[in-house]
Amino acid sequence: MTATEAASAPTKGDQVSEPRPGDDWLVVTTDATYEEEFVAFIKAARDPLYRMAYLLCGDHHRAEDLTQQTFERTWRSWRTARRGDPLVWARRILANLRVDTWRRTRREVLSGFDPPASGATSAATGVVDDRDAVVRALLLLPVKQRRVVVLRHLLELSEAEVAAELGIPVGTVKSSAARGLARLRHTMDESGTELS
Fold it and tell me: Which of 23, 107, 152, 190 is the 20 to 30 A CA-CA neighbour of 16?
């Protein structure tokens, strides 16, 4: 191990990140090992990352795979990711993995939704149908617009945060979000579903 690696190696007692107001997912530990910090991060970030993956690909199995691959790559770069905001780091990895997958396959496969439980009410069925319609409409957007719409409107990040995560200008975020929402509304109007 070189002197530089030894200086940057995590030690017991390191802090994951400085907490900010509203960052209730952020896990700050003081006497945790490197591995314990990452396990705590996985527990806190699993659901938001899975939800983002599902919204980007529209398939439960692919979303699980993307989430797992995201954690694997985040672990490989944990030394760097833990110094800043690890969730932002992981979301960027997930978005890039989704684009890489799309480039390899060059086609989208629309999947069905899971049927509601036998005792479900018609209102619950309507919610599932609406959610499925939104996911299907999202899949019709170009990948760039879909990533912006998901991060900006479904994960409720600011335009500046989306721009930083995707490495694009704020103006591009604004125009991609506007075009994506207009296309979503048009698609939803054609299918007879309201987009709130």
Answer: 152
pLDDT band at 136 (very low <50, low <70, confident <90, very high): confident
Whether the predicted pLDDT of 7 surpasses 50: no
- Identify whether the C-beta of residue 98 lies closer than 8 Å to the C-beta of residue 147: yes
Classify residue 114: in a domain, yes or no: no
State residue 137's pLDDT score: 84
Q: Are residues 104 and 170 in the same domain?
A: no
9 SS3 class: coil
Q: Is residue 78 part of a domain?
A: yes
Residue 167 lies in a domain: yes
Distance CA 93, CA 49 (A): 10
pLDDT > 90: what percent of the chain? 23
Domain that holds residue 36: 14-108
Question: What is the structure's pLDDT at 68?
Answer: 93
Both 28 and 92 in a single domain?
A: yes
Q: Read off the amino acid at residue 73.
A: R
Q: What is the pLDDT of residue 16?
A: 40
* Contact between 135 and 55 (Cβ < 8 Å): yes
**C-alpha span between 37 and 56 (Å, rounded):** 27
Tally of structural domains, the chain: 2
